[in-house]
Amino acid sequence: MINRVLIRIKVVQLLYSYLLTQSEFKIEQQVENPSRDKKYGHELYLDLLLMIIEMSGFDVSAGRRMSPLRGIALNKHIERNSLARSLNGIDEIRSLILRDRSGVAQFDSVIPSIYDAIPSLPAYKSYVRIKKPELKDDVVLWVSIINNLIAENPEFMAVARKNPDFTMVGFTRAVDSLLRTLNEYNDNRALFNHARHALDYSLDKAHELYYRLLLLSVEITRMQDQRLDAAKHKYLPTDEDLHPNMRFVENSFIKALENNCDFQDYLSQKKISWDSDVLLVRSILDKITGSDIYADYMARVGEPSFEEDCDFWRQVYKNIILPDDDLAEALESKSVYWNDDMHVMGTFVLKTVRRFAQSGNEGVDVSMLPQFKDEEDGCFGSSLFDIAVKNCDEYRELIDSFVNQHRWDAERLAFMDIVIMVAAITELMNFPAIPIAVTLNEYIEIANAYSTPRSGAFINGILYSVINHLKEKGVLLKG
After folding, report:
1. CA 44 to CA 166: how far, in whole Å?
2. How sure is the predictor about 97, in pLDDT bands with cuts at 50, 70 and 90?
3. CA neighbor of 422 nearest in space, from 20, 144, 2, 36
4. Angle between helices 189-232 and 4-22 (to 10 degrees)
5. What is the pLDDT of residue 453?
6. What are the pLDDT digits (tens) for 259-271?
7. On the CB side of 221, how many CA atoms lie within 13 Å of its CA?
8. How many angstroms separate the CA atoms of 197 and 385, rounded?
9. What is the largest CA-CA distance in the chain?
10. φ, ψ of residue 56 in degrees (nearest 5)
11. Contact indicator for 54, 67 with CB cutoff of 8 Å
């Protein structure tokens, strides 16, 4: 019932929120109107960050400069370690790489000797004995590398002094800033658990919205029944008050819905109601009773069929309830998730009314739509999110490698575009049953709705390049 269109939207939204906040490290920004010391210190600080990433086996020049470690057997214990992966995923760092920041190149002559000396450190010998190093272990190792092999390294200092902007105060500031950045990292596990819980919760809320919208028709009918009853008991009732047209309040679809076991079980379990929204229910009732749909329905001669009663409510939902701005505002105030769920859940409400009409026995055997079509759909959202987070750095590198610098600069990489492409590549690579065309179309639609006006075309171009590349490598085999 919650289809993959909505699941993809929610995964992208939660992935965006998670990746925006998950970075374990916060990059220090340059101050306004910096002195010579502060200017040089910040420049060297950024170069040192890129050095850590480069010595961990990542390309920091977007392929435009040969790594000083080329030809050297990379150390398996520090290659693509968690600390470097986290730094490499930070937006400011990615922008530096895409802009081909060349400052780190001045240290190419000394980087190999620093790299070769790492295994001699006591901190390294302790590090390699850890079976599964965590981020905090990486931090301890790299703090030792910085203190012993960079800050106190005469060769490194000699290379740094060749920079005409060098100042000793700035050098010290850079090292201190780097150590502060590493030591003030955040534990990302809590953020991940929170995001996963939010994803599951948002999907549960979408299912609740389906039932809440169906319940609204029952509440509207009850309010009209109360109105008619109150009219009978007023001081001077008219003949119409005493003998009202009961077609609306005796609508057979509403009775079938009220008696539906699935419907009642869910309401009993979740305790949802519209009791706190009397004014909203009254407003929608007034719009219904003032509509041509209502007038035509009430003017019909003879007993209405069950199909006619269902069709009346299908028209009411489609033309009055679902487009209602007051309803949209009320739902948005109840849950931040429902703003994007309304269209999809409204579609399934209409489908449910249609199923009642086509049941053949006045809806007795109709089941409410399940939260998910099957178990595979039920796991789709969590699997897509988990795999995207796990492989985000790898997919981000793949995206960056196909950014045409002559047409798209670093500023063009809107963060939402990146998130959408990471989710799309995750689906392309890890869900073989989903055709490529389906994945492309779905994420381009998400880009058109949630990112910049030109994002759809941009994402389409990058993803086609990624797909062709993966096919050439034999990694992507589906059509």
Report:
1. 9
2. confident
3. 20
4. 130
5. 82
6. 999 999 999 999 9
7. 22
8. 11
9. 104
10. -95, 5
11. yes
CA 240 vs CA 41, 221, 249, 332: distances in Å? 86, 19, 15, 39
CA-to-CA distance for 112 and 108, rounded, in angstroms?
A: 7
Do residues 248 and 348 touch, judged by C-beta distance below 8 A? no
Contact assessment for residue 113 and residue 51, using Cβ atoms and an 8 Å cutoff = no
pLDDT of residue 412: 57
150, pLDDT greater than 90: yes
Q: One-letter amino acid identity for 37?
A: D
Return the residue matching tokens 């069950």: 306
Distances (CA, A) of 402 to 92, 383, 397, 469: 19, 26, 9, 10
Per-residue model confidence as pLDDT tens digits over 365-403: 899 999 998 999 999 999 999 999 999 988 988 888 887
Beta carbons within 8 Å of 300's beta carbon, 6+ residues apart:
247, 308
Other residues' Cβ atoms within 10 Å of the Cβ of residue 264? 13
Report field, pTM of the whole predicted structure over 0.85? no
Give the residue-averaged pLDDT of 167-191.
87
Residue 52 and residue 87 in contact, taking contact as beta carbons nearer than 8 Å? yes
Taking alpha carbons only, the member of 418, 443, 419 closest to residue 431 is 443
Structure tokens at 231: 């009219």
CA distance 284 to 293: 13
